[in-house]
Design goal:
- By secondary structure, this protein is of the alpha/beta class.
- About 40% of the residues lie in helices and about 20% in strands.
- Strands 1, 2, 3, 4, 5, 6, 7, 8 and 9 form a 9-stranded mixed beta sheet that branches.
């Protein structure tokens, strides 16, 4: 494990694991850590050496000097390139691979925009960033949604109520509900969740440009979706998939919670 100092952002913590030799930069999902992919010990760990970053407001990564207002405005895409820019300063510029799960896919996709000529493999699991999620867009961009989201961080009952509501209508499953609930059960956790989602609100990958770069540089692209995932289903990503020349696409009998032992078994079968 180690740290990178990202100018203008702060200190980002990363986990190192895997017995493979190919470096892969990994971006985890909400409420997890950069070691989330360690569970894929039979399928991906023998092939890659992982550098798994903790998102800000997760683990040991620390956003430095940002005010509440700045966080609510959010990061800009140019700041995402700092992950690779600073990583290259430590490990040297070289060919890499990238993996992103859920909200982590936003960062993974934006790095493709900047560094496609150096990327061998792109692995996306239940990826955010390929289509607009109307619910999250409402909470992060609409004035009423932003007010409700802010209010929920200060209320003991509103955040759990909203979470139970989206579970009841099938937007999230039991596994995702449990993870999310454990991230909102204290005032600090609710604020960290609020800050996490706002910090990345402006990170909108240019999917047309990215698809063109994947095809141009012949990046090996693996996409995995959960058949019962109502957050980021395969059908929402199909316009992007159809732009790719030769992507490998899987839809597994799982929900949004994909990075599990079951997926590891599936990938080696």
């Amino acid at each position: 494990m180690g740290f990178l100092q990202l100018p203008g952002l702060g200190k980002v913590h990363f986990h190192e694991y895997g017995t493979g030799t190919k470096p892969i930069l990994a971006f985890h999902g909400y409420g997890m850590l950069g070691n989330q992919f360690r569970v894929l010990e039979q399928s991906l760990l023998p092939r890659y050496h992982f550098y798994g970053f903790d998102h800000f407001f997760h683990g040991q990564s620390n956003l430095e000097g940002w005010t509440d207002k700045q966080i609510r405005i959010g990061m800009v895409k140019d700041q995402v390139r700092l992950y690779l820019q600073e990583w290259f300063k430590v490990y040297g510029e070289q060919r890499i691979s990238i993996i992103g799960y859920s909200i982590g896919a936003n960062l993974a996709l934006i790095l493709v925009e900047e560094y496609a000529h150096l990327i061998d493999d792109l692995i996306l699991m239940a990826p955010d960033g390929l289509a607009v999620h109307k619910g999250f867009y409402f909470l992060r961009h609409h004035p009423i949604g932003k007010f409700i989201f802010r209010w929920a961080t200060k209320s003991k009952w509103l955040a759990p109520f909203l979470l139970k509501s989206v579970k009841a209508v099938g937007v999230i499953d039991e596994a995702l509900y449990t993870i999310a609930y454990n991230e909102i059960d204290t005032p600090k956790k609710r604020l960290d969740s609020y800050y996490t989602m706002n910090l990345i609100r402006l990170l909108k990958p240019d999917v047309v440009k990215i698809a063109g770069l994947i095809n141009q540089y012949k990046i090996k692209c693996l996409l995995i979706f959960g058949k019962d995932d109502h957050l980021y289903p395969k059908k929402a990503a199909m316009p992007f998939v159809k732009m790719l020349d030769n992507a490998e696409v899987h839809e597994v009998k799982m929900g949004h919670w994909l990075v599990t032992k079951a997926l590891d078994e599936y990938l080696i079968s």
